[in-house]
Amino acid sequence: MVDMLFICHLSINHKEMTKAIKMIKNPKLPEGVKIRESLWLFGKPDAMLIFEATDESTAGHFVIQFGPVAESCTSIAFPIDELRWTL
């Protein structure tokens, strides 16, 4: 099975900034998750994680660890060439 691609935006609770940075740099990776990129952003959101997961449930299990330090918004991503309703 091909892993699915996810993008997670994190808006960090600034009272938890130090803890959040440590978590982003060294996240707990459940089996079936591979991080492609960890990015710090200027502006909001504060950070972005681009990762692969075997399924939505595994992705959710990974992202939930950031709940105590940040608000997250996660999307499934796929190549634009896979859009069937465009030319």
User: Strand sequence of the main sheet, in spatial order?
Assistant: 2-3-1-4
Give the rounded overall mean pLDDT. Answer: 93
Range of strand content: 35-45%
Question: Which structural class should the secondary elements be placed in?
Answer: alpha+beta
Number of strands: 4
Radius of gyration: 14 Å
Distance between the termini: 27 Å
What are the secondary-structure elements, in order, as H or E? Answer: EHEEHE
Largest sheet: 4 strands, antiparallel
Low-confidence runs of at least 5 consecutive residues:
none
The portion of residues assigned to helices is 10-25%
Q: Report the principal-axis shape.
A: globular
**Tally of alpha and pi helices:** 2
Task: Note the topology.
Layout: E1 4-12, H1 17-25, E2 33-40, E3 47-53, H2 56-63, E4 70-77
